[in-house]
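# step 3/5: fold
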Amino acid sequence: MIRTVCNKFSYICRGVFCRKRALYAHRTVITAVVLAVMLIAFLSASVIVRAQNSNRSLNEKIYYTNITVEKGDTLWNIAEEYMDYGHYDNIYEYMEHLTKLNHMTSDDLYAGEHLIVTYYASGEN
């Protein structure tokens, strides 16, 4: 009789354990599927954004113009005026671009100095 009770108890415990293991496996599969869907959505969005940026880049061309620095002008002010936020992450990046383009060793500007600045516009101009 004791052996029968133990066997029944063992069977019940195995059943509960099996259900818990099955529930854990089910949750793991659901979590994996959700993460996979999120990853696919993120990658798809990334590809779409890149495609839009490349299409815009095909329609836009870079132009160069020569400006004369006036009294009170700073590299920051010039960068604010000519920077295209679609092509540069921040104003510091564009200022660095201008200093390299003009072979400047500092960001000091003097009245009457000439600078080359870049800007973007559609190719139809």
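# step 4/5: annotate
The mean pLDDT is 79.
# step 5/5: archive (pending)
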